[in-house]
C-alpha cells in the first residue's frame, strides 16, 4: 500500500524494490504478538518492519534505525500507514543502547548488508555492474568514500583491506595494480576499478559465474562503512536491551559476519545470558532462493535472553 505523500521519484517508481529475506522464519523466531515492542535496527525499505507491525497490531511498536538518508525516506513512506506505532531514527545501530536508555524490548532484528535499493542505484557506487562514482557510503553523511581508500591507502593497507574484508586471494596483485594505475590518474569510478581488477587477475583464473571484482568491491564497502566493527559493537551490547525471553535475530550475507554472530552467541550462551535457538544457521527455502536470488547467501541466527 502506498501513501498519498509518496515522493515523485520513489524507488518503486524507478522500478527498484527490496524484497525482504526469510520473512516467515524471522517472524516465527520473533514471536510477534500484539502489545510487543521490537527494534528493526536495519530498516532498509521497511519490509520486515511492516510485517512485524502487521503482526503486532493493534498496539505493537517498532523502533526503526537506518543510517542511509534515501532508504530512510523510502521506509518512512512505506510505513506511514502504521502511524505512531513506528518510530524511526536516522542512526548507526551501534547507538541503540543510548537511544533506548533503560527501556527493554521483545526482540531485535538485524538484516545486515545492503538493500537492493542501494545496490541497484548506480550513483551510490556499490555495484560493478553499472558505471558510477566509487562512493559506497551507506550513510551519506560519512566523509570517507571508496575512492578515498583506493586512491590514498598505502600498498600494504590496500592489500590488508582486500584480504581481511574480502578474503581476496589476489589481494597483493590487485593492490599493486591499483597503486600503479592511480599514479597515472585517480581511480574515481566503478568501471575504472573493475577494469584494473580484471587485468590484475590472470584471465585463466576468472570465474564465469562470479565477477573477479566481487571480493574487492565487498572489501571496500565493508571498510568504508565499518561494517564488522559495527556488528561487533551491537553483538556486545544489543542483548542487554532485551527483556527476559526477548530474542535477537541476525541475518548475515557473508561468512565474515556469520562467523562473528556465531562466536558472539556462543560466548553469551557460555556466560549464561543468552540461549541459542539456531544450532545451525537457518537458510532460505529453495522456493525463496528461486523467487529472490539475492536471498541465496542469507543466513539467519537467533538467540533468546535468559
Ligand atoms: C539488507 S537491508 C535491510 C532491509 C530491510 N530488512 C527490509 O526488509 O527492507 C540493510 C539496511 O541496513 C542499513 N544499515 C547497515 N548498517 C547499518 C548501521 N550500522 N546502522 C544503521 N543502518 C544500517 C543499510 O543502510 C540498509 O538499508
Can you describe this structure?
The chain is of the alpha/beta class. It is built from 13 helices and seven strands. It has a seven-stranded mixed β-sheet with strand order 3-2-1-4-5-7-6, sandwiched between helices. Strand 1 (37-40), helix 2 (47-55) and strand 2 (61-65) form a beta-alpha-beta unit. It starts with 22 loop residues before the first helix and ends with a strand. Bound molecules: S-adenosylmethionine (SAM). S-adenosylmethionine binds next to helix 2.
Please give the structural blueprint.
Layout: H1 23-30, E1 37-40, H2 47-55, E2 61-65, H3 69-79, E3 86-89, H4 96-100, E4 105-111, H5 116-120, H6 146-152, H7 155-166, H8 171-184, H9 190-200, H10 214-225, H11 227-237, E5 242-252, H12 255-271, E6 274-276, H13 286-291, E7 299-305
Parallel strand pairs: 1-2, 1-4, 2-3, 4-5
Antiparallel strand pairs: 5-7, 6-7
The site of S-adenosylmethionine (SAM) has 21 residues, from α2.
Amino acid at each position: 500500500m502506498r501513501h498519498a505523500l509518496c515522493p515523485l521519484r520513489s524507488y518503486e517508481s524507478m522500478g527498484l524494490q527490496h524484497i525482504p529475506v526469510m520473512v516467515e522464519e524471522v517472524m516465527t523466531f520473533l514471536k510477534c504478538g500484539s502489545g510487543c515492542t521490537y527494534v528493526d535496527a536495519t530498516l532498509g525499505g521497511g519490509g520486515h518492519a511492516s510485517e512485524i507491525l502487521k503482526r503486532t497490531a493493534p498496539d505493537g511498536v517498532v523502533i526503526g534505525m537506518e543510517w542511509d538518508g534515501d532508504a530512510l525516506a523510502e521506509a518512512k513512506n512505506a510505513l506511514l500507514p502504521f502511524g505512531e506505532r513506528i518510530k524511526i531514527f536516522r542512526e548507526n545501530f551501534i547507538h541503540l543502547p543510548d537511544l533506548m536508555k533503560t527501556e527493554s524490548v521483545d526482540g531485535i532484528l538485524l538484516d545486515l548488508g545492503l538493500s537492493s535499493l542501494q545496490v541497484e542505484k548506480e550513483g551510490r557506487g556499490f555495484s560493478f555492474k553499472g558505471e558510477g562514482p566509487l562512493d559506497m557510503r551507506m550513510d551519506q553523511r560519512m566523509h570517507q568514500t571508496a575512492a578515498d581508500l583506493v586512491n590514498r591507502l598505502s600498498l600494504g593497507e590496500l592489500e590488508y583491506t582486500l584480504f581481511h574484508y574480502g578474503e581476496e586471494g589476489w589481494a597483493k596483485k590487485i593492490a599493486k595494480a591499483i597503486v600503479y594505475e592511480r599514479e597515472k590518474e585517480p581511480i574515481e569510478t566503478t568501471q575504472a576499478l573493475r577494469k584494473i581488477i580484471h587485468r590484475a587477475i590472470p584471465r585463466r583464473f576468472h570465474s564465469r559465474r562470479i565477477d573477479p571484482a566481487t571480493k574487492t568491491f565487498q572489501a571496500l564497502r565493508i571498510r568504508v562503512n565499518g561494517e564488522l566493527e559495527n556488528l561487533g559493537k551491537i553483538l556486545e551490547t544489543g542483548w542487554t536491551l532485551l527483556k527476559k525471553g526477548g530474542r535477537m535475530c541476525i541475518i548475515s550475507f557473508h561468512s565474515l559476519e556469520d562467523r562473528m554472530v556465531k562466536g558472539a552467541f556462543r560466548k553469551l550462551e557460555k556466560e549464561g545470558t543468552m540461549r541459542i535457538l539456531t544450532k545451525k544457521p537457518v537458510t532460505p527455502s529453495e522456493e525463496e532462493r528461486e523467487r529472490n536470488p539475492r536471498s541465496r547467501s542469507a543466513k539467519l541466527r537467533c538467540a533468546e535472553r535468559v
